[in-house]
Specification:
The structure is a homodimer of 615-residue chains.
Chain A (H helix, E strand, L loop, with lengths): L7 E6 L4 E6 L2 H7 L2 H12 L13 E5 L13 E6 L6 E6 L3 H6 L5 E5 L6 E6 L3 E5 L8 H11 L5 E4 L2 H4 L7 E3 L5 E3 L4 H7 L2 E7 L9 H17 L2 H6 L5 H6 L14 H7 L1 H4 L6 E5 L9 E5 L9 E3 L3 H7 L8 H14 L3 H16 L18 H12 L5 H4 L3 H8 L9 E2 L2 E2 L9 H9 L21 H6 L11 H12 L2 H4 L12 H12 L5 H21 L11 H5 L14 H12 L9 H6 L4
Parallel strand pairs in A: 1-6, 7-12
Antiparallel strand pairs in A: 1-2, 3-4, 3-6, 4-5, 7-8, 9-10, 9-12, 10-11, 13-14, 14-15, 16-17
Helix pairs in contact in A: 1-2, 2-23, 7-22, 12-14, 13-15, 14-15, 18-20, 18-25, 20-23, 20-25
């Protein structure tokens, strides 16, 4: 085996109660790297389209990336992959912190979970042995409590990944929360619901093995200077994390406001942004970080006074600030922090949850949902009670929350009338909080992103605002906003580039620090001993993207599904920088398919698959 | 009662076997004119959204227009209105010939049919009495045969409207054929299936009453000069009817080719166009016309030699030439004529039928439909056997024809896979054969047309190619093709203007002869004695359009439904004049809603309804 990986996956059959090792060929590593790339390879081959995502036969793969837990900068991440209960298509959901690095030290590159246990269990993995243990006493407990009990029962330094009550109740966007109150979440697409459907409460890892590095000396020397650049270009991220972006994003017309209806939230943005809230005088408790990260964007927060006094939690990220803030017409940061904390405890995705809350508020305004449905909660725009209370209802599947727990698209179909007009999603996944009317390349991305309404598959709104490394400029010309020319190309390049992070286990915040594919291919070569250049890396990225598209194609996805909600396509913002814009999606899409080497129906051609070695 | 109308509607209860007269107030006539306007008023009030279109409780209204059967030019038409079995929303389907004028002479302005007869019946209406008669001996007979039997049983000069086997079998786009072999069809939306569901085979009319005209002298004098203009500007239409348009339409990139995939059909267009085929040396048998028409576009055709020798039929119209011709890659006019004749005999809409055949051909090419499904018919592009044979299968609901008889949208959903990519429709109605990628105003129209994929609600592709009357220029600036600026306005103006023809019973081919709302309002005033000016007429048009939108809104229609197929939105033509164009629909739609005074969700505001007297 080349350096950098172990070459084995732990396969767990929850029904039989058996654990065994699967060996991965080194060819597969080079072709798919690891993480979601390798998972796509494994899951594509065995995909049974007749198996419902919440059927026990739907496998879930929990994968370290190729570089996870190494000395590569920001190499903290692992990823969970399965057919999503929310969208019915490919899902991958990554998390940072220390769980991935610790898991790597057990000697595995991944886990594949099959079938359903009769009783609640957790999986305990060390570098010496792995076993399933009873988790009946944890069922019903939230993720913070579970983390404490699990570490008490195993090893205090162990790292936990566990579901909360929302996963147990199979909320379709239930997440997996890592390390308790530190709350690194594998958030999107409902992997937590799959765990729940399998009676899997937690995976706890503890290991001491060391990952071999091919050329440690060169790698150490390289990252010394690389980390300098990263630190230098991450000053804002280091100070406030993603929370520092609210004001800028608002000024570009990129921030969703009132369920994506309005164009400006200026004062409100000031009130909730990190610059205002994340200081020691306000709510900042302490900084924290993930494995091997020079950026250090993590912040713990505390509320000492007022109705929410006593809260100790991880900070709400940008998406959460926008989702429970502006998109619900709420400018009270404390309310967002409480909703965020609840989501982490229950184990539900803050983006989909806040999207469902904003959706419910608009339904309520139009009389589609009434006080009877909300069990008395007044779902008025900006209401603290509504926001916090609806998180409870969804996670506990009470009242209308039981329907919203199916996702806003399913809920709207059930509610009928005008309700479908208020859904802002792609392929059933609520859009992340970056507006494709502000950055039209994001329209192409949301329409074609492999897991649905996912911003992380492109992140093009980050692009073009600073000096850039040569290899990033190679990817494309500087960013495009409201026009459509060049947007398809920008999206194509960035989906490919962003597609290498989850296979490698790297954090995508390296990109705003101007880390490009050239630097990353150098890290890979240093660690594995491969001679992987930027071109091979980008071809690999394209291979993985196309494989996941084929996975979705098997599930019926084609051009007809590559679209966006009517609110985005036909309702321009009334004011602000993006005023009057709607994306010219069809035009960009037809260009995009050509760039991808797909048919005009959005299906990879045989030639394209051949070229990528996927035939 | 003012002149020009009788003020009563015949209400027929097929279950009870009773007939009675309903009196219409003169205020309603002024507010809704007649025809589909008055029908919308009646049917909106009693719409029960829980009643399926093929449930016996779905009423159908068969209405003369306000001017039908008068001396007004081209005042031949009547219209049938109901909730459509094809789309589930508002349907109105008009026909010319002499049926409407003859019906008017019985002393009625319309018929409303309710419930279902136990046995097949036909309705016999004269100016002296009306009755239901047994039609068991006609069930299974085609429309030509039925016409002959019915006239023998009643009165040779009576005019018949009847369904064929397709209506009896409730093909969802079954039509009502008038006057046998003359084949004036109320084609779109499946009114024939509703007749079938009610066991109503035919309505036969014969009357001698004369419609009173307020100022016959002025009307006679006016139309003398008006008819001159109409004749002068209709030379092409008089010579070849709509069949003369194929070559021009092809040159603009407006002709659908190979299920809307290609951009050019030049040689083929020459072969099937009227100029080539409708001469005495070729297939022209004789000219014919409708009531009071100076245009005289009707042609009978005959085939004397070859495999189809013996055919005597009405000519295929433009839509049929395009549908069974270029859109199926067929340039053999005789094949189109045979398919057309079959559609008229079976009683099925040629636009939806040919759309289903092209759809089936593309499914066959992709292996989604096989020879087992087609009972051995090779559904290859351009195949004569395929085209003619599939008309039989659909009308008789045999093999895959049974599924296609549900419409291409429903069929695609059932077939799954890529099939939905091959549907080209709006709201479940197959698009008429004018391409919204060539005339982008037609994109807004198809997306918002009240009955779905209907070209007749806008006809904007006719606009701006000749000198125009002042009042037509008042409507809008000259036409827009591939851009989007001005397209929403053009569509809005023309939907309003085109919306007065079915309420009045006038033929829309008056419009290419540059008859505008000013001239028409003069005719109305001459005939009724009202002082109706152009502005009142256009406000009335807008009132009727909004009432029908509200009918659809009750049925769940809003912005989310105002869209087009992915082939139209994201697949540009590869060559020809419209090469590279896809409509910027969302942009145009948001402008259109503003012009309409609708919310951004596509719903008329209370202010708009107030303004139009519809509160």
């Amino acid at each position: 085996m080349p350096c950098g990986f172990w070459g084995k996956i732990l396969e767990v059959d929850l029904k039989a109660g058996t654990l065994k090792d699967i060996v991965i060929s080194k060819d597969d590593y080079r072709k798919y790297l690891g993480g979601s790339g390798l998972a796509a390879k494994m899951l594509y081959g065995e995909l049974d389209t007749d198996v419902d995502p919440l059927d026990e036969r739907n496998p879930v793969a929990i994968m370290a990336g190729l570089l996870t837990g190494t000395i590569a900068p920001a190499s903290s991440r692992h990823v969970m992959c399965a057919r999503s209960p929310l969208t019915g298509i490919w899902d991958e959901s990554a998390a940072g912190g220390y769980w991935g690095a610790m898991f790597r030290r057990t000697g595995y590159d991944g886990i594949i979970i099959r079938n359903k246990s009769e009783k609640p269990v957790y999986l305990w993995i060390t570098d010496e042995k792995s076993e399933l243990r009873d988790a009946s006493h944890l069922w019903g407990k939230d993720t913070y409590e579970s983390d404490e009990v699990l570490r008490t029962e195993t090893e205090n330094k162990a790292k936990t990944a566990c579901i909360g009550p929302a996963g147990e109740k199979m909320v379709r966007f239930a997440s997996v929360t890592h390390e308790g109150n530190e709350s690194h979440s594998a958030g999107r697409g409902g992997i937590g619901a799959i765990w729940g459907s399998k009676n899997l409460k937690a995976i706890v890892v503890f290991g001491k093995k060391k990952i071999e590095i091919y050329n440690r000396e060169k790698m150490t020397s390289d990252i010394k200077s690389d980390a300098e650049q990263i630190k230098e270009l991450s000053v804002g991220m280091t100070a406030f994390g993603t929370a520092g972006g609210v004001v800028g994003v608002e000024s570009w017309g990129d921030l969703p406001i009132k369920n994506w209806q309005l164009g400006s939230f200026a004062e409100g943005a000031q009130k909730i942004t990190g610059q205002t809230t994340l200081t020691p005088e306000m709510y900042l408790d302490k900084h924290h970080t993930c494995h091997a990260c020079p950026i250090r964007c993590g912040k713990s927060v505390k509320i000492d006074e007022g109705p929410y006094a006593g809260l100790r939690s991880n900070k709400p990220e940008y998406e959460t600030l926008a989702g429970f803030g502006s998109n619900c017409m709420n400018d009270n940061w404390e309310v967002i922090a409480v909703a965020n904390d609840k989501c982490n405890r229950y184990g539900i995705d803050t983006i989909s949850t806040s999207g469902c809350v904003a959706f419910a508020m608009e339904c309520y305004e139009h009389g589609i949902i009434t006080d009877d449905d909300t069990l008395g909660l007044p779902m008025e725009w900006g209401s603290a009670d509504a926001i916090i209370g609806m998180v409870d209802l969804i996670a506990e599947r009470k009242g209308i929350g039981d329907l919203l727990a199916e996702g806003s698209a399913r809920a709207a179909e059930e509610l009928g009338g005008l309700a479908p007009e208020f859904v802002v999603d792609s392929k059933g996944m609520e859009l992340a909080c970056h507006d494709p009317r502000a950055f039209t390349s994001m329209a192409v991305n949301y329409a074609t992103a492999v897991r649905g309404g996912c911003h992380l598959e492109a992140l093009t709104y980050f692009y073009g605002r600073g000096k850039h490394l040569d290899d990033l400029r190679y990817l494309n010309e500087p960013r495009y906003n409201h026009g459509y020319e060049g947007s398809a190309r920008l999206c194509y390049d960035f989906q490919n580039y962003m597609g290498i992070f989850n296979p490698l286990g790297l954090c995508k915040f390296l990109f705003p620090a101007e880390v490009g594919p050239k630097m990353i291919s150098r890290w890979i070569s240093n660690i594995t001993g491969w001679d992987m250049d930027m071109d091979e890396l980008m071809t690999t990225a394209e291979r993985i993207f196309n494989l996941k598209r084929m996975y979705n194609f098997k599930l019926g996805i084609s051009r007809k599904d590559d679209t966006l909600s009517p609110r985005i396509l036909a309702e321009p913002r009334p004011d602000g920088w993006a005023r009057g814009v709607v994306p010219y999606l069809g035009k960009m899409l037809s260009e995009y398919y050509q760039l991808r080497g797909w048919t005009k129906l959005g299906v990879p051609t045989v030639e394209t698959l051949d070229k990528l070695g996927l035939s």
